[in-house]
Design a protein that fits this description.
24% helix, 5 strands, five-stranded mixed β-sheet, Aminopeptidase
């Protein structure tokens, strides 16, 4: 496979942002999700890693993706997996499907052509709302898999100190926290008491 040229003015950067800059960039996208949050706690070993991809037009980040990398040791290749990405819909700006197309091309150039990996992209698209973007996926060589279930919500349980729960809430609020319920402090005994 050969590299596809990006439209003039677009350029890709990989692993160029630190954690704080990544967060600041991601919260600017209406289609951002928890799956695009810096995975510093993600397990890493010699077969797994995380890569962060950004697409810029001029100096502005117009698309981004956190890419999970799974290496297959026998084949010396691997899989690059983008879940719910790339993000490309800037908050408060009109949708520009060309940004989505250029992001797919740049991801393919980096992970398929340069790194010789299999690229799996699972963007937040639906057949009813995003037919143009689904056509772009097909045009760029991806075979869309239409899923019957929705991936628009998550239920997350957070257990820990008050500070930990507050920090988690601050982290996810920009991504569309709809509802949060707290139980307060709970004490649970261990085992049976001998009386």
């Amino acid at each position: 496979m050969t590299m596809k040229s990006l439209v003039n003015g677009y350029r890709a950067e990989v692993d160029a942002l630190d954690r704080d800059v990544w967060y600041d960039a991601i919260v600017q996208f209406a289609d951002a999700s928890l799956y695009q949050v810096w995975q510093s706690g993600a397990p890493r070993d010699r077969f797994t890693d995380v890569s962060r991809f950004t697409l810029k037009r001029g100096d502005e980040i117009v698309a981004a993706a956190e890419v999970r990398l799974f290496r297959l040791p026998i084949m010396k290749r691997g899989i690059a997996y983008v879940l719910w990405g790339p993000v490309w819909q800037r908050t408060g700006q009109p949708r520009d499907p060309e940004v989505f197309r250029q992001a797919l091309r740049a991801l393919t150039n980096e992970y398929v052509v340069r790194r010789r990996m299999v690229l799996r992209v699972n963007p937040r698209l639906s057949r009813e709302q995003d037919p143009e973007e689904l056509q772009i996926l097909s045009d760029e060589g991806f075979a869309p898999v239409v899923q019957a279930r929705t991936r628009r919500s998550l239920i997350i349980e957070v257990t820990g100190t008050w500070e930990k729960v507050e920090a988690f809430e601050r982290m996810v609020r920009p991504f569309g926290l709809v509802e949060m319920a707290r139980t307060g402090e709970i004490a649970i005994s261990r085992g049976r008491s001998e009386t």
